[in-house]
Amino acid sequence: MYKYVLKRLLMMIPVLIGVSFLVFFILAVSPGDPARMILGEQATQESVDALRDEMGLDDPVLVRYAHYMGDVLHGDLGTSYKTKLDVLMQVLDRFPNTLILSVAGILVALVIGVPIGILSAKRQYSWVDNLTTVLGLVGVAMPNFWLGLLLVMLFSLHLGWLPSSGMGEGLVPMIKSLILPALTLGTGCAASIMRMTRSSMLEAMRQDYIDTARSKGLKESYITKYHMFKNALIPIITVIGLQFGMLLGGAALTETIFAWPGLGRFMIESIKSKDMPMVLGSAMFLAVMYSVVNLIVDILYAYADPRIKAQYKH
Amino acid sequence: MDNILEIKDLVVRYETEDGLVKAVNSVNLALKQGASVGLVGETGAGKTTLAKSVMRLIQWPPGRIISGEILFEGKDLVSLTQEQMYNIRGKEISMIFQDPMTALNPVMTVGKQIAEVIGVHEAHLDEEGTKKKMEEMLQMVGIDPQRAEEYPHQFSGGMKQRVVIAIALACNPKLLIADEPTTALDVTIQAQVLELIRNLRDKLGTSLLLITHDLGVVAQNCEYVAIMYAGEIVEYGELRDVFHRGAHPYTKGLFDSIPKLTEKVDRLRPIEGMMPDPANLPEGCKFHPRCQYATPECGQVQPPEVDLGGGHIVRCMRYSGGKPIQSGE
Amino acid sequence: MTSKELVQSKELVQNSEIMRRSLWMDAWRRFKKNKMAVCSLVFLMILVLIGLSTIVIDIATDNAIYDSLIIKQDLTDRFGEPSGAHILGLDEFGRDILLRILWGTRYSLFMSAAAIVAAAMVGTIIGAISGYYSGIVDNVIMRLMDVVLALPYMLLAIAIVAALGPGLVNVLISIAIGYVPEFARIIRASVLSVREREFIEAAKALGASDRVIIFNQILPNVLAPLIVQITMAMAGAILSIAGLSFLGLGIQPPLPEWGAMLTNARAYIRDAWHITAFPGLMILLTILALNIVGDGLRDALDPKLKN
């Protein structure tokens, strides 16, 4: 198993290089002159040129990328154009909030998606199944920022139960302020996870080994848990991993609606204020985190499926 | 009551999008205590459905037992609840499935899969005892007990089928249903697996319902034969009666379509035509469109079961008066 | 090659065409049975008609209606509740929400379609080359695609818009790039599976060039998964466009894009529920319809996959 993890870690390196280069390339070749941004409109062309030279902006992209990555490996993501603050510190300051929100979102999605998916598969063609199929379709199609607005309308404005924005201080207010964003973020995932759970359960139910299990005299509830679900779990883990990555990357919308002090919202604000080091740092960080999540999913995958584990025994 | 299993007028249907599939149509079949019956027929004749019906494994939707009785030691399995069936399955009646490649759960160790069935039915055993019994079963089917912690993908097809057999026989069932247990295996492995079943049966005294489309397998393993066609048993009797005095035109066709060692045959004679679609069965005798002896009557009347003597039963209009009509053959 | 073999090859190629034609007829017959999918398709076709008519109206009236009803603000009548005159009410600048939604169809529906068709075309070419030539070409291309896929989709789109700046074309590009790898993968997989089949051998034997084989023989055979994927991806693209616009990174106000219409809704959420409700509902319904049609198409085109 160590070998497998090690192998996956090694395989991650080229992906990380590729992803970081892509992000760097997209954001570094953007129009607009960073030197001009820093010095302001009044600065003379000479001083701008001098700064350009100092920053290495006229070097080829690959050279600039190498410099940037060299700095990144030393823990230096640069400084903000606007606030002159250290980017890494700013990113690390916001990221835990995004992580809390994403974890809460995926928990909501799991708690809703998995049991309903199983129930729906076990009662295929029943009214429960039809209802959840429709709800699943609606859930997947629901724009989550719109759902967020609707939830604010209902729970904050109409019922007054939960705060509509910000992150509460202290545990209970924090959890209260987390509920609506987590629901907003989790609903779409819940629908995806539910659909995947249903279809992979149906797939598992059709397999011959279920007949074998039944012919042993095992109870149906036991078969559902240990024979169907354990097999259905493998594709479900994939979807959960994918969804979690999307939550990390897509939390920007939810964070904006609920004024949640996370990395996504921070990145959007940095984009609006054209603070490129901040944007680059945030995007880079989120991209790396996404790859890490994928790695974790791959490892969980091997735990769920002995066939994959076996491939890496030697 | 010396019949361990008696199936009476069993009707099983699948309701699919493409229509009503008449998989099993008023089947009667009896199995004597300790005996073995070979159930022979082409793919799609309803053999597996019949076997699964005995285990009550037909899942609704799309399939269900419409009518009939399945008497196991005198009690009707059709009328039992699922909870009552839990005590029958694996303990009284066991089943071996066709394809060992897919019959085992890929994410559970083989040891655990055998231990499961012991665990449910032998409540007096503790964890240690269950494990010991599981290892004994592995030993019995010729697998090193040390491999108990391995997963199915680490086993070959023949070894997997041994595991399946170990699962089926772990609780000394009175009746074993084997659904084409060797079809998916290599010829040499086939012989080994059949011998294993035969030996274990001798040791444990289990009755056997062996489903196959291989008449050779039947000849070696069974005392009785039932020939199934389009969801019906068209002929039933002792092995030699059916093999040497096969009465139904379909039975004859089956024997003519396999090569014989003792006779010089220039050409095999396959049965003309195809088995009818079970969603669209012909009226009257199901075989009449392919039968060389068919009369207009055959297309209208469902032939009754006729006993030719000594429990040799045939369903064909040619014998409907109890007397075989001599053909010009 | 003997003349007999030549005839056989020709027959094989022709048979593959005949089979293809009957496949589409069968698929249509199956699709028609799915009532939800047919309703959704009708809904989408109505949207397309609305989108086209508003464009025709704008051209015919030289943007007179567009300027006066869709863009122009009327601060005397803000937040008007839904009423007989304004069925869906008025927005924060006193504009009729229903009209803005109708005029916004072009952005959500046509822009997403344009982005996805562009992505599909690029992805198809890349995937076809990758699958057909395999070897090192394939390896390099697919690793590149993996890198794009290794970024969360929304993050990629945000990064591209951040670099290029907001605006219609930039949004289109940012959406399209993210979808290229998915199309490339699907096409590559299909090409790989089709490539070894008999009728391709036959076409090769008849002396067809690589390009002819890819375009005349292979691509028609991968059309089915392609169409399904286009439908599904369009749903995703609409969501992304709306999301980007909502964040202020996409289509900018006062253009009546559905997501952009929601940009200010958060601020006025206490004052007027209908500003939030209707544009979002439109997004939901359109995506829902696309997904249902996509599911229906998939089931119709590949009945084996249906459970």
Number of helices of chain B: 10
**Chain-averaged pLDDT of chain B:** 84
Under CATH, the homologous superfamily of the largest domain in chain A reads: MetI-like
Number of strands of chain A: 0
**Total number of distinct structural domains of chain B:** 1
CATH class category name of the largest domain in chain A: Mainly Alpha
H/E series of chain B, N to C?
Answer: EEEHEEHEHHHHEHEHEEHHEE
The largest β sheet of chain A comes out as: none
Tally the structural domains of chain A.
2
- Helix count of chain A equals 13
Query: Could you name the CATH topology of chain B?
Result: Rossmann fold
Beta strand % of chain A: under 5%
Largest interface: chains, residues each: A-C, 49 and 46 residues
SSE pattern of chain A, N- to C-terminal: HHHHHHHHHHHHH
- The counted number of beta strands of chain B is 12
Describe the protein in words.
The complex is a heterotrimer of chains A (314), B (329) and C (307). Chain A contains 13 helices and no strands. Chain A has 314 residues and is mainly alpha-helical. Chain A has 2 domains: 72 residues, no CATH class; 227 residues, MetI-like (MetI-like fold, Orthogonal Bundle), CATH 1.10.3720. In chain A, helix 7 crosses helix 8. Chain B starts with a strand and ends in a 14-residue tail after the last strand. Chain B is globular, with a radius of gyration of 21 Å. The C terminus of chain B is likely disordered. Chain B is 29% helix and 24% strand. An 8-stranded mixed sheet of chain B has the order 6-7-8-3-9-10-12-11, with helices on both faces. In chain B, strands 2-1-4-5 form a 4-stranded antiparallel sheet, with helices on one face. In chain B, a hairpin with a 2-residue loop joins strand 1 and strand 2. The longest helix of chain B is centred in the middle third of the chain and has 18 residues. In chain B, helix 4 packs across helix 5, helix 5 packs across helix 6 and helix 6 runs parallel beside helix 7. Chain B contains 10 helices and 12 strands. Chain B is α/β, with parallel strands linked by helices and 329 residues long. Chain B has one domain: Rossmann fold, CATH 3.40.50. Chain C has 307 residues and is an all-alpha fold. Chain C has one domain: MetI-like (MetI-like fold), CATH 1.10.3720. Helix content of chain C is 77%, strand content 0%. Chain C has 11 helices and no strands. In chain C, helix 2 packs across helix 11 and helix 4 runs parallel beside helix 11. The longest helix of chain C is centred in the middle third of the chain and has 37 residues. Chain C is elongated, with a radius of gyration of 23 Å.
